[in-house]
Write a structure and sequence with these properties.
binds nicotinamide-adenine-dinucleotide, 271 residues, Rossmann fold, 8 helices, 45% helix, alpha/beta, 7 strands
């Protein structure tokens, strides 16, 4: 699919990986609707999400690439928000050609100590969110001759690790949704794929995993993030939001690729 002039939705686009995806889609010529909560406080979480100002600055950065960009405030766990999001994008940009389900959250801890509230919220944002956004966008995608849905899963959706049961379960669910949707939407020429990012220095690591894993490594000056990159990535380097954006652009363009997942992890996961 040629991306120039196409219209894309990216959820969780105010910062981190979502922002990198929005920028790469814009550099490929697509207009982008950037969706985020506009409220950093989620009571189920130990860290702050993106602020309203992050979304505004991400929109400005995307516009600077010479395409149209629109901010949309929505919580991907609410069907009414997702339906309004799809309607607003179709009105503002004219159609929906690409949906990137990137919004996600993390909580870490052993199962015996993990709260039911945190489990429910991780599953709601990471697993139900892509379902609701797809459900809302599909009627719009169906109006075109082609389209693409790209779900941002994780290497944690390939191999689950201790302390990450809810997060991993939610990402395995994203993989299942990707495969089921690919078969459902193939006849309409809508391709559905996943990207599995590896290790990126975003809030998930700097504000959550470094603290959680750091407790077990007390006395070691190296951060858990740097240690994991050094030991798990064959290439011995971290991944960036631009790396994930390039993978999304590839999958949005790749006319004969559906139902698959593209791991962008420097070798930290090889399946
Ligand atoms: P991040 O916290 O920087 O970005 C997540 C974004 O989603 C934030 O802007 C946040 O405000 C938004 N968001 C959260 N809940 C939302 C909701 N209910 N509705 C709308 N927006 C919501 O983290 P990130 O690392 O950029 O994560 C982006 C995606 O990449 C996530 O799906 C994450 O699971 C995945 N991922 C990250 C890594 C990593 O190493 N950072 C690795 C693999 C996968």
């Amino acid at each position: 699919m040629e991306l120039k002039g196409k219209n894309a939705i990216v959820t969780g686009a105010a910062r981190g990986i979502g922002r990198g995806i929005a920028l790469k889609l814009a550099e490929a010529g697509a207009n982008v609707a950037l969706v985020d909560l506009g409220n950093p406080r989620d009571p189920a979480l130990t860290y702050n999400l993106a602020a309203h100002g992050d979304l505004a600055s991400a929109v400005d950065e995307v516009k600077s690439r010479g395409v149209k960009a629109a901010p949309i405030l929505a919580d991907v766990t609410r069907l009414a928000d997702c339906e309004r999001m799809a309607a607003e994008v179709a009105k503002a940009l004219g159609s929906i050609d690409i949906l990137v389900n990137n919004a996600g959250i993390i909580a870490a801890g052993p199962v015996a100590e993990f709260s039911e509230e945190a489990w429910d919220r991780v599953m709601a944002v990471n697993a139900k969110g892509p379902f609701l956004c797809a459900k809302a966008a599909i009627p719009h995608l169906m109006r075109n001759q082609e389209g693409a849905i790209i779900n941002i899963a994780s290497i944690a959706g390939k191999t689950a690790r201790r302390g990450l049961s809810a997060y991993s379960a939610s990402k395995f669910a994203v993989m299942a949704l990707t495969q089921a949707l690919a078969e459902e939407l193939g006849p309409a020429n809508i391709r559905v794929n996943a990207v599995c990012p590896g290790l990126l220095r975003t809030a998930m690591w700097t504000d959550v995993l470094n603290q959680y894993l750091g407790k077990a490594m007390r006395g070691n000056a190296e951060s858990p993030f740097d240690k994991t990159v050094g030991s798990a990535c064959y290439l011995r380097r971290e991944q960036t939001p631009a790396d994930i954006g390039e993978a999304v652009v590839y999958l949005a363009r790749a006319d004969n690729v559906t139902g698959t997942s593209l791991v962008v992890a420097g070798g930290a996961e090889v399946h």
